């Protein structure tokens, strides 16, 4: 599964490694009330999955993991901060919490538990290795252009597993050729199936944009857009100015039931990557996102470039790096700083 980007320029060969020193992720929360029956913990974890971190809190408090709220899953091979919620009655007990890979940074209160998706986005700080001074300048220019014109919002390679074998499992399960009892695994495989066809749809739209619109995402009649306040709509005319002003973005289909589908020319392309018989609920996902707060710090003597930026929730930092490099990354390539 290949991810194409809006500008087909030369490849920049840098490396990065997902580890606690070189890959930092900070969750950007929605506003908290400062009062209520739930304690909101700002937590730092090092080289742990979100599930492992939640399990540690659940064991310490002697409660079910389901009673701990969280907004999203964060990388294991990184240093990350995020917010979790528990009932306020556990605040006193949590003062005694200690774990070698987890630290409670601070806390506040809120009126309800944190739910999946309750975040504004994520801030990333990533070290890129093997970057020459000329390449540092190229990276800065490409990052700025992507911030202006938009980044195709692919699901990153992490979504599909090291060898992408989960895609085939998902197809077999949905076709009735593979029976799976585990409800969580079923849900996971269905999301893989939806994500795969979204990426395939986006690939076609990106190639079309590159060929027909000089590297800017091409809007089509019948596209469904997402507004800044989270509403979906299909306009009578193409809303080019609003898109360029980052007020609306076109969306792609995560196939399933009870979801709006594109029409006209946009619908013709979308239909190739649809499965109207999939029983699970469908969704719309932004086709394009706009990275913000981009900063670069080049350590000339060491050929290291630190790049920091913010992305909306559900988006992948590695996709932004792929677009800058004009190169697809895979999990196997990221095991060593010296591997190209």
Automatic annotation (TrEMBL):
Alphabetized UniProt keyword annotations: Isomerase, tRNA processing
A GO-annotated cellular component: cytosol
Designated name of the protein: tRNA pseudouridine synthase D
Organism for this UniProt entry: Sulfurimonas autotrophica (strain ATCC BAA-671 / DSM 16294 / JCM 11897 / OK10)
Enzyme Commission (EC) number: 5.4.99.27
UniProt record similarity statement: Belongs to the pseudouridine synthase TruD family.
Domain of life: Bacteria
Gene Ontology biological process terms in this record: tRNA pseudouridine synthesis
